[in-house]
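User: Assemble these into one structure.

Assistant: Restating your components, then the assembled model:
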Amino acid sequence: MYWSKLFIPTLRENPAEAEVASHQLLLRAGYIRQLSAGIYSYLFLAQRSLLKITRIVRQEMDAIGGQEMLLPALHPAEVWQESGRWEVMGANMFRLKDRWQHQLCLGMTHEEVMTAIARGELRSYKQLPQIWYQIQTKFRDEPRPKSGLLRMRQFLMKDSYSFDMDASGLDEAYEKHRRAYCRIFDRCGLKYLVVEAHSGAMGGSQSQEFMAPTEAGEDHVAVCASCGYAANLEKAESEPVAPLAADPPGDLAPHKFHTPGRKTIAEVSAFTGLPETSQIKSLVMVAGGEPVLVLVRGDHSLSETKFAGVAGAPDVRPAHPEEIRERFGADAGSLGPVGIRGMRILADLALAGRRNMIAGANQDDYHLRHVTPGEDFTPEWHDLRQAAEGDRCRNCGKPLELKKTVEIGHIFKLGYKYSESMGLRVLNASGAEVTPIMGSYGIGIERILSAAVESYHDLDGMSLPPAIAPFEVVVTPVNNSDAAQRKAAMEIYRECLAQRLDALLDDRDERPGVKFKDADLIGIPYRITVGKKLAQGKVEVFNRRTRETAAVPTGEAPAFVRNTVS
RNA sequence: CGGGGCGUAGCGCAGCCUGGUAGCGCACCUGCCUUGGGCGCAGGGGGUCGCCAGUUCAAAUCUGGCCGCCCCGACCA
């Protein structure tokens, strides 16, 4: 294509509303424009790149036997009510009414619709297994859209769903997807981690996330460089650092002492001269409407995800200050487990075996010394703490590293949640009615593009992997009014096309600097520059990523790029 | 939902405090010039100053309400 005919609105300056690199660069390079908060138009360059991404996704999904479908984005409330998620999704779901006042919503995901198809049509074990997928727009009324294409209210997802007769069939479908996802992200040229994940509101057992490391990410993962353990921080397990001071020995009774104005762990630590690891941090959570006292070591934080799992309630939240005062007769800074009755007490495993620690006295401005878990109160023991920097790996004892990442893919073993609640049944070989088991597997399409920009950019712009760049090579005559350069550039461009390269000819009547800057900005992996060396029968091949230039005989430049790309 | 910031030309911003002619850079159009990293000269077009109401002889500027966007936190299949 000829650049002079294309709409590529590059900007010299960064738009004020963009904060993260991928957002700034996608705007500046003329890939996207914002229509509203979390809603973007994908202009020519973005669409080309997204089409390349979806082509890779399709090829790999087809390769594991996936069948592509196109499903409605507009759903009747009924299917969501059947699965129970009409309520669960709350304000995150876009809802609307038709002219007859019938309730509808915009699809956030497609478990319900897929299961509705399956229950109407699948009758026999002979029809299983099935893998069905779709690449479509999904809608979520995000409380806070942000970071360009990383968190939107309307976005593209590849979603696939597997239906199997039994758990081993599901294992197989899950494993196929795991491998397909690795191939997809490898082919897209991304750096990524596969981590153990929490299955959240989806329900289900096993689940892994594919995470691309980036400072713009909001998900934290714990990674062991030594043995390969990797998990979302929500669910990561780790060995905490040892207490900084030994516990006083002996069978001591709790002893109340005055701590005027000391509310926080740090304040009590400074007041007593004992490290935070000698304190019990008492938190009040509300799970399923009931208050629960949760205890972690003073320097630790609670993982609300782990807590929700232990509490067995989907709706958990910290208690309000009024609830705490009413129930404990003291404010949050002076709470403790001693003397608490009629309330579940959960304690983190890092407190097990500890003796004579410091906790709140349930009286403002007072704390207790010599509090021993298991003797002065009896908790339920669970892993409740969030892994922290400095912790060691449970498997190999080496230090864990925490990384900021963005989720680009997620695979779930759903189990029977949807097939059960929505009444999907098939007959097995002995004629009995059984419920198929399901899996669900998602990929965020725009996030692949964003993550690639986050990973591969410099001060001049982005440098996308060739597989997903909007063009593979741009042919740039330095001086377009020089007839010899113009002619040579045209011939090289034609030869690039003949070599099946996705090529662009920069035939604009611009200064060389403008053409170079624009090509660098939009991130075309290779540039063939036709300039002063043409007299010696040479042109230059510029590698955007490495910024290296090679002088190549004019006729060989397209083949040179062709070989480098593949 | 809590906290903060911003809304003036396509983009980036000044003007607002102290009310009176709407301005700068980039981009855009015309001509000349130039061609290895956003070149130069000359001329030109483009604005309901987010919206509504109020105060005033007079509002981009002061007051009130509303809307939109961004950031931090909460939340997040």
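The first strand of chain A starts at residue 32 and ends at 36.
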